[in-house]
What we know:
The chain has helices at residues 12-23, 64-73, 100-107, 109-124, 133-141, 143-158, 167-174, 179-187, 211-224, 270-277, 284-291, 331-334, 358-361, 364-378, 405-419, 428-431, 437-453; strands spanning 4-8, 27-32, 44-47, 50-53, 78-82, 85-89, 92-96, 203-207, 228-231, 234-240, 245-250, 256-261, 263-266, 278-279, 295-306, 315-318, 327-330, 344-353, 386-399, 423-425. It has 490 residues and is α/β, with parallel strands linked by helices.
Amino acid sequence: MQTHVAIIGAGPAGLTAAYLxxxxxxxxxxxxxxxxxxxxxARTVQYKGYCFDIGGHRFFSKSKEVEDFWSEILxxxxxxxxxxxxxxxxxxxxAYPLKIFEVLFKLGIWQSVYCFLSYLRAKLFPVKDPKNFExxxxxxxxxxxxxxxxxxxxxxxxxxxxxxxxxxxxxxxIKGLSLMSAIMNALKPARKSSDVxxxxxxxxxxxxxxxxxxxEACAEKIKHSGNIVLLGQxxxxxxxxxxxWHITYxxxxxxxxxxxxxxxxxxAPLHEMIIDYFKPQLPTAVLHAASQLKYRDFLIVVLxxxxxxxxxxxxxxxxxxxxxxxRIQNFKSWSPEMVPDPSMCCYGxxxxxxxxxxxWESHDNDLIEKAKHEIQKIGLANAEDIIDGCVVxxxxxxxxxxxxxxxxxxxxxxxxxxxxxxxxxVGRNGMHKYNNQDHAMMTAMLSVKNILAGxxxxxxxxxxxxxxxxxxxxxxxxxxGLRSVPxxxx
Length: 490
């Protein structure tokens, strides 16, 4: 049978794999459950000419291969944009990444002394072998700064106590930073960028009409190469007979499709793939491990309003427990072309929740009124300036990183790698890993290399294992791969 790759999910990982395989004349069929958009959480949703970036996507990578991919797909429509983020806490705004002297000044002398004493205590009596997010961050910043700048927002995002969140997630996101390193970097004269610990870049590229513009162009290139991208098609079965895969799918009308494939690349939620689609049924221990994997959902209340220049950040993190909104995006700051009328602006109020809970099930009009009230309370807009709004819901936005997720993923991974070598998990939900967009793409790129080589030369699970990588350094400076791209297997 000629090589034919089934790709489940048309997000960044799935479309990256499909495009690269099509360039090597490998036949691909991409199945996407969304009836309208490609890009997954990196899609661009439109409403009355306004464009919304659902997840907030900065196009920046230390992988030259990823940067070149973006340039190849969208050579003339990428803007260079300034990065600007802040934290809102107790009625004040703090730059993010945190600027230590600004923090100490705005908190006041007694709060600052308390924070520093808390930090000293953490250094003298650290938690040995921290197991959870709270312990890890408190070791690096002290409990007081943890409670101010980490606890509230983190618990809004994940819907659980910081003591229940895995410490390795904290290490992955903010390794290399501590209160003392921030102070020392503030005191020392400017040094070369390679010597300075950074958590975020200062500028990034961005498609004129949002991230979906790039992925829509990618899907068109795949189709123009003679391959297939099907929207509104939900996978119902993925069965292996020992030689090839039999893929079944259906649309919203119940029409059923079937095709055979030599390989499968899946960015579908790992839980769903293992329990709902995979055939023959996997061992009980694997099914149980998959059933324990959880996901966090969120929704964005989009507010369209007169532009009174209240803020120009890409987004603001809301560390205020008196409001439910977790983060506020300013879509005009991502790209002016996201907003069709220059006298207007457009904000995205992000609410983290679980599908089926009270917030998720709220009527759109009630959510819009709630968002109006909260943005006025924060001081970023006046309710009377808001002229329209809409709601976008995003199920399974984030895999949950509880204490047992790594163990459960390992059980699934061992079974698939042992018995189904032509099956590849890629992307954030597909691997149940916190992959940024470029990391998700790299898992796809390495999967393609393995398929073309006829064997698994690269362990894609090592992508993003280097916790110090997080939008730092020079774009594309590390050659073809990310800092964390594994070497070939021996």
